[in-house]
């Protein structure tokens, strides 16, 4: 008597990989990010800059670019949080590799923060120069 191979029985995670579950996992990740002070500051800054740019009447493409840059920043911040969690779990005491992982994650977030700030400054300077 031959038994058929059942992927769901062999890999129980397959059942949880449907698109509806992916949104649930993303929402859970978002809840984890809201616990981070840096993410709350990023969200507040995004709203503030969107209001500032719309007040100065910049074109729609610049607003879309700002939103894309902020989504990239949120993605990097989420990856940084994941790196921190993994490093904290694996490195029980202080280790050089753990410090390096934290520093590199923070560097990636800081680079995107600088890119966002440069875009906003250039956009506002161009908008003010036109008026």
TrEMBL record:
Q: Which GO terms describe its molecular function?
A: ATP-dependent diacylglycerol kinase activity
Which keywords does the record carry?
Answer: Kinase, Membrane, Transferase, Transmembrane, Transmembrane helix
Enzyme kind, highest EC tier? transferase
Q: Which InterPro entries match?
A: DAGK (IPR000829), DAGK_sf (IPR036945)
EC number(s) from the headed UniProt entry: 2.7.1.107
Write out the transmembrane intervals: 38-57, 63-83, 104-122
Q: What is this protein called?
A: Diacylglycerol kinase
Organism per entry? Ruegeria aquimaris
């Amino acid at each position: 008597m031959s038994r058929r191979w059942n992927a769901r029985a062999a890999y129980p995670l397959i059942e949880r990989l449907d698109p509806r579950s992916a949104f649930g996992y993303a929402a859970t990740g978002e809840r984890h990010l809201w616990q981070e002070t840096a993410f709350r500051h990023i969200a507040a800054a995004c709203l503030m800059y969107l209001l500032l740019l719309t007040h100065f009447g910049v074109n729609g493409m610049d607003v879309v670019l700002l939103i894309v840059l902020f989504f990239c920043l949120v993605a990097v911040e989420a990856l940084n949080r994941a790196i921190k969690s993994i490093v904290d779990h694996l490195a029980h005491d202080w280790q050089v590799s753990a410090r390096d992982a934290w520093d590199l994650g923070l560097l990636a977030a800081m680079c995107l923060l600088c890119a966002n700030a440069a875009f906003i400054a250039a956009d506002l300077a161009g908008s003010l120069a036109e008026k």
